[in-house]
Each structure stands twice: as structure tokens, then as C-alpha cells.
Amino acid sequence: MTEKTSKEIENTVLEVLDNLQISYEIHHHPPVYTVEQAEEHWETVKGTHCKNLFVRNKKGKRHYLVILDSRKRADLRDLNNQLGEDRLSFASPERLKRYLGLEPGAVSPFGLINDTDKVVQVVLDKDLKEAEWVSFHPNVNTATVTITSLDFEEFLEWCGNPLRTLLI
Fold it and tell me: What stretch of H or E contains 15?
């Protein structure tokens, strides 16, 4: 099986949004691997920019996609307590690829498109409910897609992964 190109990966996300009749804006930029690098390209991109963390529990039996405002810092100990977990840590690039079909630097809720078994649990920061617009990578780190928060909720519902809203 051949690997998809960045453009094909991006187009898969845009096709899902189109099929769900979700309007979006897309902004292309050089590859970015961190929030700090991405900030250089957000000047003209509206909305709340999000940080997405892919973590696992101690035994590696449960995986979480944690979505929060990029300006926030996730406290994994507090998140452990809120989720009733033993110990959360960042998942390996291999797990990221296996469960969300993503590469490091391109972690995004749009990766849930690839989680056909609905294994990954979504943890959404409660404060994002206040945002009018949210932005994420379209599963590649060379673009940013902006959608309304209401459309994002619709997308998450369509994905069907377990969802918890917590104050992170």
C-alpha cells in the first residue's frame, strides 16, 4: 500500500467537511511542528488556535486526544485525576500513526476520521465551548483549517468517539 501525499491527506479532511456541509477556511503555510512555530503564521487566521495532545494511560490500553486552547498548558497530573487514570504520558509516534493515522507535528481532531474502531477518547477543554471559531491542522502540518465551534461539535458527533468535556 502506498503512502498518501500531504495533498491527498488534506483533501480527505476537506471532503469529509464538504460532505458534512461544514464551511471552512484553509490557510497554507510552511511545515510547523510546534505551537510556537505555527504562531508565526496565525496572524491572518481567525479563531481560537488549538493544541492537540495524544496521550495514553500507563498500560497503553486507553488513548486520549486532548484538545485545548493553544495558549493553555495541560497539567497531565490534573488530567489523570479528572479521567480517573493511573498515569498519562505522551503516546509514541507509532501509536499516533496506528490509532489516528497521523505523524508528529500534525496531531489534529481530524485524525479521528482514521479511527474507524472509535478507540481514541476525546477530551475537550470546556473553555473551547466559548470560542466562536477553532482552528486545526487538516492532518498535515502545512495548513490550518478554521471552522465554527458549532461545526466542530457536529464533526465530533459525526466521528462518534467517546467525548468528555473537562476544564483543562
Answer: helix 6-19
| CATH code for the domain of 92 | 3.90.960.10
pLDDT digits (tens, 9 = 90+) for 3-41: 789 999 999 999 999 999 999 999 999 888 777 777 777
The single-letter DSSP state of residue 126 is G
Alpha carbon distance 154, 74 (integer Å)? 24
User: How many independent structural domains does the chain possess?
Assistant: 1
Q: Residue 159 falls within a domain, yes or no?
A: yes
Owning domain of residue 132:
6-166
Whether 81 is in a domain gets the answer: yes
In a domain, 1, yes or no: no
Give the per-residue SS3 of 62-114.
CEEEEEEECCCCCCHHHHHHHHCCCCCEECCHHHHHHHHCCCCCCCCHHHHHH
**Which tens digits make up the pLDDT trace of 42-61?**
778 888 999 999 999 999 99
Phi, psi of 54 (to 5 degrees): -105, 110
pLDDT tops 70 at residue 2: no
List, in sequence order, every residue forming a beta bridge with 115; answer none if it has no partner: none
d(CA 92, CA 100): 12
User: What is Dmax (Cα atoms) for the chain?
Assistant: 42
